[in-house]
Write a structure and sequence with these properties.
By secondary structure, the protein is of the alpha/beta class. About 40% of the residues lie in helices and about 15% in strands. The two termini are about 25 Å apart.
């Protein structure tokens, strides 16, 4: 999920063709944040046509204008807000959060439905949560499990968004959690951890973007629909990430750990803690010859790239 309060774009007045059309499909992207630009780079590397829209998604008129002007065959919506420096921002900016994460999302999905365009929505898995004790025994959450967590205003906005759009037949909804990539972007979960001397000792689902984003584009290309837990298979722990960082990029790294309850005592809004089942995603992408990597392999590759970049 991109940390943009509204939909932004790249160059151009309303949208810019980033490459010449090499295939019949034309992708249009709402949002110009961290994840949107990673997806754009993948499409450009494939020689695809990608339009980066500057429309503000909370304006239905702007969304409709962009789609009727460019006539894309595939739409990807990465626009949304998480808040800066974290989701506690949303507690003081409730209207902005609603307009971006609920109204904006519904505008994009509904206008695409009216125009018979397939749309991929980058959503959030932070709509489930369990206590430290419950997570040890609870089965991984499936796409069919009813979402319920609304302890923070951010989580509530994502929950209401999903409940509002999940029945649209033109929709592919990808639930992302704790995105990870080989960089130090402020939205990268690794970069966040490296800023702290104390980290919460948690294990949960994470989304290793370099392996999974090409899969998102495969699903979009083939007009797959429905909800997918868009996470890397297996459980990722904060301690494991710090150990890998120490091994590959920060040999002098030191940290202390504390529990979830201690963390919640210092945060304004509760955080979601969950493990998602990625079986549906693995099986579907395997049908197209694409393999989703398991946790350890995917994470090792991330830190190897970071080491090569000397980050």
């Amino acid at each position: 999920m991109d940390n943009t309060n509204n939909t932004n774009g790249t160059n151009g007045t309303n949208g810019t063709l980033e490459s010449k059309r090499t295939e019949s499909q034309v992708f249009l992207m709402f949002g110009n944040g961290w994840i949107a630009n990673q997806m754009k780079d993948i499409l450009l590397a494939q020689g695809r046509t990608i339009i980066m829209s500057k429309a503000r998604t909370e304006s239905r008129e702007q969304v409709l204008s962009e789609l009727t002007k460019h006539k894309p065959t595939r739409v990807i919506n990465c626009a949304g807000t998480r808040g800066t420096p974290n989701v506690d921002w949303c507690e003081d900016h409730k209207i902005e959060t609603v307009r971006s994460n609920i109204l904006g999302v519904l505008n994009v999905v509904d206008v695409c439905f009216q125009l018979d365009i397939h749309v991929t929505q980058i959503g959030s898995a932070c709509i489930y949560t369990l206590s430290e004790e419950e997570i040890k025994h609870h089965p991984d959450f499936l796409e069919t499990d009813e979402p319920f967590f609304q302890g923070s205003w951010y989580a509530r906005s994502r929950l209401l968004s999903e409940l509002s759009i999940r029945h649209y037949p033109n929709l592919l909804l990808l639930r992302i959690r704790l995105p990870i990539a080989p960089d130090l972007h402020k939205n990268n979960h690794i970069a966040r951890l490296l800023k702290f001397e104390k980290i919460v000792d948690l294990t949960g689902s994470g989304t290793v973007l370099p392996n999974l984003l090409p899969g998102a584009l495969i699903l979009s290309e083939h007009a797959e629909t429905g909800i997918y837990n868009f996470v890397t298979p297996g459980q990722i722990s904060n301690v494991e990430l710090m150990e890998l960082a120490k091994r590959y990029i920060r040999p002098n790294l030191k940290w202390q750990t504390f529990g979830l309850d201690d963390m919640l005592n210092i945060l304004r809004a509760p955080r979601a803690n969950c493990i998602m089942d990625a079986t549906k995603l693995q099986k579907k992408l395997r049908e197209y010859g694409y393999e989703v990597k398991e946790r350890r392999e995917a994470l090792e590759e991330i830190f190897q790239v970071m080491a090569e970049k000397k980050l």
